Amino acid sequence: MITFNADGSTIMGDQTGSQPGRYTADFSESPGTLTLSADGEERKMLSLIEFVDDNHVRITQPSNELPPSMAEGAAVVFERAAK
Question: Rounded distance, CA 24 to CA 4, Å?
């Protein structure tokens, strides 16, 4: 689960817990780039990101380096949560 808020904050979590953090996204190229960092950590994680449609986004597994393409980045599709 990843929650992206309009103010640049995020909550990243799984079955074991969640961690607040920050994100920036750059869509000047396709696919775009996503930079994630957990609160209290200096390390930044990089991903490729693209919108599949209005309710789905594809994001590659965060890593220290950007993958060369979506196909080589073990991408996961996330669905927009209902409000």
Answer: 10
Q: What is the largest CA-CA distance in the chain?
A: 35
CA distance 2 to 74: 16
Task: State the DSSP string of 13-48.
Answer: EETTEEEEEEEEEE-SSSSEEEEEEETT----EEEE
* Global confidence as pTM: 0.83
Determine the straight-line distance between the first and last CA of the chain, rounded to whole angstroms: 15
What is the chain's length? Answer: 83
Compute the C-alpha angle 75/81/83, nearest 5°: 160
Over pLDDT 70: what percentage of the chain?
Answer: 100
Tell me the Ramachandran region of residue 71: left when phi exceeds 0, alpha when psi lies from -120 to 50, beta otherwise.
Answer: alpha
Token code pair at residue 77: 């599709």
